[in-house]
Design goal:
about 65% helix; globular
Amino acid sequence: MIKNLHTIADVYQYLDGLFDQELDSDTLFASSYLRGLFSSAVSHFSDEKQEVSTEIIQGVNDKLAQAKTELSPQDNAIVQNFWLALQQAMLNKKKAK
């Protein structure tokens, strides 16, 4: 289970930390793919201490929708499932407040 991710920096730290673990190639692929989309979605925020917002989540959703044709159906399913787990970790902090 993914810990709660409160800020942009938390998400980066989590995704980068996955490469220090012994994980399957699908997880590493999905995390690196999403890191790129996440970076693109948050590029207009100047502070990594910024809390993850619904605007950021929607930005990644939009980028995923645009990039869907880049991926095979199997890879798209892997990335979408990983993204759902990440979203849950980001949204959990909103419920905890």
